[in-house]
Design brief:
The chain is built from three helices and no strands. It has about 170 residues and is mainly α. It has a domain of about 110 residues. The protein is rod-shaped, with a radius of gyration of 60 Å. Belongs to the BLOC1S1 family.
Length: about 170
Amino acid sequence: SFWNAFFGSLACGWCVTRRISFAGKHSAGGAAEGMKKREKASAMEDLESSLLRIMQEHQQASILARGCTEKAKKDALRTATRVSELLVHTVNGGVEEAFINEKRIELEIRALINTVLHYTKQTNQWLAISHAMNSAMKEIGDFENWMKTMDYDCKSINAALYNIYKG
């Protein structure tokens, strides 16, 4: 029959393991016909219960498959999140290190600027002292020159007065 051919062709052999038979027995006579009808009715009930069982098993398999799919999806999402976190941590680690190095360099630059300003101020003080000493030396040199000029002038005046007195 069609149902035996259909269920016999199923790869899982579901009908075979449940001993479902859809073929009626050929017999002659009224009793045989009544029995044939009862067998058909019984076969229809078996068919309905078998189809109901198949549908229930399919629904359970679908629910299990859906559960497995959801679990796999959650696992994949968790794994992707972890990979993302690791990548961010790796990238941020380098950025954080660069940021710390930048801060250290900025602090060293500020310290260097303060040191340069201190030495600039000290150099300017030394330069001012040096100019003051040079000015003092010039004044001493000018005073010495003035003294020589005065000495010469005094000698000239003294010689002139001596010549006038003797003369």
